[in-house]
Amino acid sequence: MFKVPTIMTADEILDKAFRRANKIQVSDPNYRFRMQKLNSSKVDSATSVIDATLKRYVEAFPSFDNIPEFYRALIDLMFSVDKIRKSLGRIDGARKEITKIGSKSARQINRTGKTNYMAYKRTEAYGRVSSIVKALDPSLRYLDEVRNGFKQLPAIPTKYPTAVIAGSPNVGKSQLIGAMSTATPKVASYPFTSQELSVGHFMDSRDRYQLVDTPGLLDRPFDERNSIEKQAVLALTLLTDLCIYVVDPTGNCGFTLEPQLSLLDSLFESIPGMRFLMVVGKSDLDIPDHVDMSFTESFSEKMGDRYLGLVTISAKDGTGLDELRAILVGSLEAREPRLKEKKDIIE
Ligand SMILES: Nc1nc2c(ncn2[C@@H]2O[C@H](COP(=O)(O)OP(=O)(O)OP(=O)(O)O)[C@@H](O)[C@H]2O)c(=O)[nH]1
Ligand SMILES: [Mg+2]
Fold it and tell me: Are the CB atoms for 180 and 211 separated by under 8 Å?
């Protein structure tokens, strides 16, 4: 999604530049002019190659002010936006300095009559340029790592109204995303958690809506997470402020209601601003008699306007899915402006 070319090391850049310069041939019957042309062209060629190479790198990186917040947060998590910016700044500064050295040296070469001095000026320029490029090596290597990291970013469009799906393992999250989606949900990888996200879409008469399932991220209490995972969860809040919380009261998932509700509690406490829509699933199965279904009242009280209500569904026979879609469409339209990204980096 961010197309950045492979970034060469300092030595590779210098090799390329000097190899190009060494191939230069000039013709002039006059020895002095010939030497002048040869030395100034070599300096010019070497510094232009370096300038063009570094410029291409700097321009290939996205401008972090213009990318969706979700991606900026993930990149900041994997690397450091500040360090990337500084590295790019250093490279751009070096590039300008090298261009200056190139034109100044070429001018000096073209002004002198002494052929020894011409060669000396060229060697001197090479030396200065080499040490500047060599000093960039750590920045170049860092940016190449960042570039490789870009490939791991999950490909999730940010322009569609989005809801994230959470709930204990086996409650039916994947099944729900499949039943709601118009096409087979796509799977995207989520950096550092080695988790995958699955992304589905559905349409109402006008717009496209997006559902994101996060296996392994929102199915355990937040406190049991390491800090990377916590931040990964928080990055999700830049994508959406609506969470579909799936509860399975039938016991089919292997959990009673109690741990499922305390997970919801933990997500509510730890993800600021997230609104929750309770989805009670597997309605095609019987709920055991001892299960107390009055829990919803306390949630509605506790969560206030962050509680969007309850829908009973079955992903298996389709019960309640239309109602669920209608509630999502209504609630997502009222979402915060910050979540409405103007730009998108996914086609
Ligand atoms: N009867 C019935 N079974 C369902 C329904 N939804 C899901 N299941 C079953 O429940 C099991 C778990 O469903 P998944 O959709 O994989 O659950 P999940 O929440 O994605 O599970 P993890 O990804 O492991 O957290 C599967 O065997 C599904 O067939 C439903 O509406 N009715
Ligand atoms: Mg699943």
Answer: yes
Distance 172 CA to ligand 1 centre (A): 3
Place of tokens 């200065």: 128
Ligand 2 mean position to 334 CA, how many Å?
A: 28
Q: Alpha-carbon Rg of the chain, whole angstroms?
A: 29
Residue with CA at minimum distance from ligand 1 atom 1:
282
Which amino acid, 42? Answer: K
The structure's pTM equals 0.85
Report the pLDDT averaged over residues 249-267.
Answer: 94
pLDDT score for 282 = 97
By DSSP bridging, strand 208-213 and strand 195-203 are antiparallel
| Tokens describing residue 327 | 């509630």
Whether the Cβ atoms of residue 275 and residue 242 lie closer than 8 Å to each other: yes
Residues 55-109 pLDDT 10s = 999 999 999 999 999 999 999 988 999 999 999 999 999 999 999 999 999 999 9
Euclidean distance between CA atoms 274 and 326, whole angstroms:
19
Among the atoms of ligand 1, which is closest to the Cα of residue 168? 25
For the stretch 283-308, pLDDT in tens is 999 999 999 888 888 888 999 999 99
**Cα separations in angstroms, 251 against 164, 165, 171, 227:** 23, 19, 9, 31
Q: Is 215 in the pocket of ligand 1 (CB under 6 A)?
A: yes
Q: pLDDT digits over 190-243, tens only? A: 776 777 889 999 998 888 999 999 887 888 887 888 888 888 888 888 899 999
Domains and CATH numbers, the chain: 10-150 (1.20.120.1190), 162-339 (3.40.50.300)
pLDDT of residue 188: 81
Best of 175, 253, 282, 284 for a ligand 1 pocket test (most atoms within 8 Å of beta carbon): 175
| Joined tokens for residue 75 | 């990149």
